[in-house]
Write a structure and sequence with these properties.
The chain has helices at 16-32, 151-154, 157-161, 330-341, 367-487, 493-547, 549-559; strands at residues 58-72, 77-91, 97-114, 117-138, 171-180, 195-209, 213-224, 232-242, 247-257, 263-275, 278-287, 293-306. By secondary structure, the protein is of the alpha+beta class. A twelve-stranded antiparallel barrel has the order 1-2-3-4-5-6-7-8-9-10-11-12. The relative contact order is 0.10. The chain is built from seven helices and twelve strands.
């Protein structure tokens, strides 16, 4: 609602228990929620800005239309005014930060009397457009300091109901923005800059009383267009009162001072909360002068798109996790002893029967109902703690599950890799074994071949010996024949011819034997050369076999 956390019922017409319950939930919302509220928190229908933002990831649209009349006594003009104002607010990144775009469009119909003639002038333009950011500097409702409790002093009625000065400490925010307007704008100062800065300091007080309901006081100190020839100093004071959970009323005083235009405006109005995200409002505005006099009636609405998904809950010290089963209750026994020592009719000012726990509950006469409220709050805190623990355990479980799956996948991958490596090693061993077997077979074949070559060489030697023997016999025969020829030189021509023929045949046979002998020698030399080459190769292979002795041992083991 209007700069207030929530609307409450009229406390004057309600029984004490209902008042207690409503105030409890109101203060619970104010104390525990840093920025974001369960119900819409809008600046309308006033023109001031509250200190609190709409909440992280919340988009809020605010707008309204107004109809009014202005009369200027000196200029003798009457003006019919139509205006439309808008604001777009978005909570960005953190609860304390808000981006804001706002502006106001105005259309006038001016009637001016000059002598006996009346002139009509129409004009329209944006009075202002501003974009900027607001940040909450100080929040007294967030993590409030724990009071030091003097039980003897609190036994008196005066100490209990005296005014608490610290409630005057407001929440403080700062706004920094930039104005942008069109040139030759009829609603701004002549030669006004197209762009100019705007600074606003905002304060907000939230009060809740047992007799007069809930109140909110907002003040704005404005320094606008400070870089132009006509800077503006302004101030706004807005007071809001919640009548019940649907209706609220407000009053606002706005002052402005500059060389171009100065005024003091009073606004009165109210708002109706249709649902938690939609609010309708209406107001009237008027001033106290006649240069010009102003009277305007406006209606508007505010709507938010609530994408907020995380509330900032502020717990009191010792209650961050709710009420635990094994919580130490010695302090509570001491406090109960203090209560037993009080005289009849005397009470102490405390926020709960369980002191130091829930300082946001006000004073009540019904102790049983207060106990019920305390129990309900403790149960809610405990439920919240259990839920947080459950969510945390689920996260841890999911994380451990992912880690286990990852480790299992790594293990399976590692085992598969080792299996492939072992399979490759086995295949390599089989290949080496087969290679060694093939090498041994080849060596045996070579040895067999070498044995065959030796046999051939032996046969060749025998043949050569036979040939030599035959040559010797042939030489002997030749010598004998030569002797005979010498004896028979005188024989006839026929005998000479026959002898010649025989000599030719003998020479031919001798040549054939010589040729065969040379061929045999050549073959013998070739066989010897091959044998020597084979021996050299065998020697080299034996040297290589010596280097592979370890492989032979492994092969023998594998054969075994």
């Amino acid at each position: 609602m209007i700069k207030s956390a929530i609307f409450e019922q009229n406390l004057l017409n309600m029984n004490p228990k209902s008042i207690l319950l409503l105030i409890t939930f109101f203060l619970f919302g104010v104390t525990l929620s840093a920025q974001y509220t369960e119900k819409i928190n809008t600046n309308r229908p006033g023109t001031s800005q509250g200190a609190f933002s709409v909440g992280n990831n919340v988009l809020q649209l605010e707008g309204g239309i107004g109809l009014g009349k202005e009369k200027h006594k000196i200029l003798n003009t009457k003006t019919n005014v139509f205006n439309f104002d808008y604001a777009v607010r978005y909570g960005l990144l953190i609860e304390q930060l808000e981006l804001r775009l706002n502006g106001k469009f105005r259309a006038d119909g001016v009637r001016q009397t000059i002598g006996g003639n009346e002139e009509k002038i129409k004009r329209s333009n944006f009075e202002v457009n501003t974009i900027g950011a607001k940040y909450l500097i100080y929040d007294p409702y967030k993590k409030p300091k724990k009071d030091s409790i003097n039980y003897d002093a609190l036994k008196s009625w005066k100490e209990r109901y005296k005014f608490k000065w610290k409630s005057l400490i407001p929440a403080v925010s700062a706004y920094l923005g930039a104005n942008f307007i069109s040139s030759d704008n009829p609603f701004t100062a002549p030669n006004d800059d197209v762009f100019s800065p705007k600074i606003v300091v905002m304060t907000q007080n939230n009060w809740s009383t047992s007799l007069n309901g809930d109140w909110v006081l907002v003040t704005n100190l404005i320094v606008d267009k400070i870089t132009t020839d006509d800077p503006i100093i302004g101030w706004i004071i807005t007071s809001t009162h919640t009548i019940n959970k649907k209706w609220a009323a407000f009053g606002e005083y706005q002052g402005q001072k500059s060389d171009f235009y100065s005024d003091n405006i009073l606004r009165l109005g109210g708002a109706y909360l249709y649902n938690k995200d939609l609010q309708f409002d209406a107001n009237v505005a008027f001033n106290f002068k006649d240069t010009p006099s102003i009277f305007t009636v406006s209606v508007g609405a505010s709507y938010r798109f609530d994408w907020h998904n995380k509330d900032e809950i502020i717990e009191q010290p010792g209650l961050e996790g709710g009420v635990k089963e094994e919580e130490d209750i010695e302090g509570e026994e001491d406090i109960e002893g203090e209560f037993n020592e009080l005289e009849e009719g005397e009470v102490i000012e405390n926020d709960s029967l369980k002191l130091q726990k829930t300082p946001f509950i006000n004073d009540f006469e019904d102790d049983n109902f207060r106990d019920a409220i305390e129990k309900d709050l403790d149960e809610r805190r405990t439920a919240d703690r259990i839920e947080r623990e459950r969510i945390e355990n689920e996260k841890i479980s999911k994380k451990e599950g992912k880690k286990f799956k990852k480790e299992e996948a790594r293990r399976l991958k590692r085992e598969a890799k080792e299996a492939r490596k072992a399979e490759k090693a086995e295949q390599q061993a089989e290949k080496e074994k087969q290679k060694m077997i093939d090498d041994i077979d080849a060596e045996l074949d070579k040895m067999e071949k070498e044995e065959g070559v030796d046999q051939e060489l032996q046969d060749i030697d025998k043949e050569l010996k036979e040939l030599e023997k035959m040559e010797e016999e042939l030489d002997i025969d030749t010598k004998k024949e030569q002797k005979k020829e010498e004896e028979k030189k005188e024989e006839d021509v026929d005998s000479e011819y026959d002898k010649y023929q025989k000599d030719q045949e003998k020479n031919k046979k001798a040549e054939e034997k010589r040729r065969k002998k040379e061929e045999k020698k050549r073959l013998k030399e070739e066989k010897k050369r091959k044998k020597e080459e084979e021996k050299r190769k065998s020697q080299k292979e034996k040297e290589n076999d010596t280097d592979n002795s370890d492989v032979d041992k492994e092969l023998e083991k594998m054969d075994q």
